Amino acid sequence: MAIEKILKDDASEEKGERARMASFVGAIAITDLVKTTLGPKGMDKILQSTGRGHEVTVTNDGATILKSLHIDNPAAKVLIDISKVQDDEVGDGTTSVVVLAGELLREAEKLVAAKIHPMTIISGYRMAAECARNALLQRVVDNKENAEKFKSDLMKIARTTLSSKILSQDKEHFAQLAVDAVMRLKGSTNLEAIQIIKKPGGSLKDSFLDEGFILDKKIGLGQPKRIENAKILVANTAMDTDKVKIYGARVRVDSMSKVAEIEGAEKEKMREKVKKIIAHGINCFVNRQLIYNFPEELFADAGILAIEHADFDGIERLALVTGGEIASTFDNPESVKLGHCKLIEEIMIGEDKLIHFSGVEMGQACTVVLRGASHHVLDEAERSLHDALCVLSQTVNDTRVLLGGGWPEMVMAEEVDELARKTPGKKSHAIEAFSRALIAIPTIIADNAGLDSADLVAQLRAEHHKEGCNAGIDVISGSVGDMAELGISESFKVKQAVLLSATEAAEMILRVDEIITCAPRKREDRM
Question: Does the predicted TM-score (pTM) go above 0.90?
């Protein structure tokens, strides 16, 4: 009994087999959860929060689903982490990464049961991953020299990414939107410059891309509705000090007239400030904070358009786009960089009025306006479009492209199998297991489409034994199809990230042989 008392009362530990069991079970459960969202015929999940308001999210994005789960199992947390990283790094392939890692663990479980040491499995997986990556590298297509071809590659990638999302019905339209937006960025992966505004109403088809910048604000009263050749000062400063704020201030005065004097002084200060701002020679002033009626009046008299309360990312982006800087002091006008644009006007979208800045300095900026039936649809559309934009901007930098539809997995699996045959020792079992895990991805894509996966994957395998074959699963017709003809492509960067992250995550979970859960701190110990 004495040995047991090393850990505190409530702490528990799982050793060896049981710990590994717990990890495997947790990871495989997570995999089975997101597995059904994979591929063009993948289904969506509804996530309902238990907090106030019972918010409902309908999504197909692996990272979004996993982010919203609260999970106790340590292995499952590792999988959630890799999907988050995949989301931040390349934006798409969040489901694939989890599925691949889960399948690797499922295979590893069988190997461990067959008395193969986890370290052996890990080194086998390492070799296999390296081999798979090289197999892909030999088959990549790179069209960066030929602008026309590259653009069609981008369109294909966008279509492929969108086809597993809610936008699949209008994927032509949205693929065009996404490609135009990304081509504008001219190779920077900074998606800040692409602004997405969601307005309920209309249908998804009514979404459009607008060059220029749209600020979700109304133009104040008595101010010019339209300004040409605008000079814009973007500021973050308090413009609400023309009245004495009584709350929280203690001012002792002898009479009411003194209060009036103080108010007068405050008002003068304000007027000075406005004069300084006008001295910059601007005709549009955007402020992040409130603007009271008095300064607003002064601006209107000077014929300056004053916009208050522009939200923070709106302001940062506006400064970025118009080529100005955010100012907070106005004493020396020569040091402040002003923003410029050709035209500011009010536009209507649905029944909302918005301010539209067109002809901006930075040609890279644009705004995508999404329309849709409800907030849920819009949120999901935004996530899908964001995925597409991420993948495209990554592809513009790293122009290598692969075919999609389970083709890369089959290519990798075949090469990995070859390696397994050449490798002596127990490692070869692990390498073979790796290839089985890779084949699981096309299998799941076929299963989700309700096709006979065993038959299709066997056909695929036979096809891939021929040289230079482009076969993949054509979900729409339910057979093996030529991916090059169907125009199904994926970005090499995404595939590589999926492969490497999944292998590393599986490795990490395999290394575990003990799980120690700490006892919660007792409250009274704190004193």
Answer: no
